Amino acid sequence: MSNYVLVHGAWHGGWCWRKLVPLLRAAGHEVYTPTLTGLGERAHLLTPNVDALTHIQDVLGVLACEGLQGGILVGHSYAGLLLPAIAERAAEPLAQLVYLDATVAASGQSLFGRYPETRAQLAEAVRTEGDGWRVPPPDTTFGVTDEADVRWLKARLQPQPLAACEQPVYYVHDPRGWMPCTYIACIGDRTPGGPRFPEGEGMAYHELPTGHDAMITSPEALAEVLLRLA
């Protein structure tokens, strides 16, 4: 049995794993889906002070309280930014990190520092709709195309705290040098086996021919990859 800790990306919450969780549990594994402060069912806790360190502490708290030694930590999208710092600071060693179509950043980078074009695209919405400190969900479905799934997704997305996007995340050692790491690229309509995502360098690498929110659009295929890692 393995322990999977699934950490969602920006604007999402622990709810986004609903289709994937039963598949992992049916195979005999434990699954934890923490919701980061200020998002999902914890949206009422959103303040200008919620930042990336807050979200790192959220996950460290789950690892510590559940005693998850040897867990498989999966970070989707924004959560990839947090993975190296979590791995270094965890009280018990993790078994491996999985970047699910996720941000891979150097120590000292922030999300917006890694993707300055995203900052530019969202700046006006932060000013006009987010009171200068919230990042409203972008006008996208994150690769979800089924109409029912799109309605379900959009009804649950919440603003992301701006501080979580702007705060640099620091770590001492790149986890690719001292623990197993896997990158799962959601390639959508790209040709399978085509040019490898640069973010996946130095890791085991898998491609899924689906959209960014693979846990919603292709949970069976994602579960297959994750179960092989166990």
Mind telling me the C-alpha Rg?
16 Å
Total number of domains: 1
Low-confidence stretches: none
Might you state the CATH topology name? Rossmann fold
Averaged pLDDT, please?
Answer: 95
> What is the number of beta strands?
8
In N-to-C order, the SSE pattern is EHEHEHEHHEHEHEEHH
Fraction of helical residues: 25-40%
Q: Let me know the CATH homologous superfamily.
A: Alpha/Beta hydrolase fold, catalytic domain
SSE class: alpha/beta
Morphology call: globular
What is the CATH class designation?
Answer: Alpha Beta
The CATH architecture can be given as 3-Layer(aba) Sandwich
Percentage of residues in strands: 5-15%
Strand order of the largest sheet: 2-1-3-4-7-8
Query: How would a textbook summarize the main sheet?
Result: 6 strands, parallel
| Secondary structure tally, helices | 9
Alpha-carbon distance between the two ends = 8 Å
Structure description:
By secondary structure, the protein is α/β, with parallel strands linked by helices. The chain is 32% helix and 14% strand. It has a six-stranded parallel sheet, with helices on both faces. Strands 5-6 form a two-stranded antiparallel sheet. Helix 2 (52-66) packs across helix 3. It is globular, with a radius of gyration of 16 Å. It starts with a strand and ends with a helix.
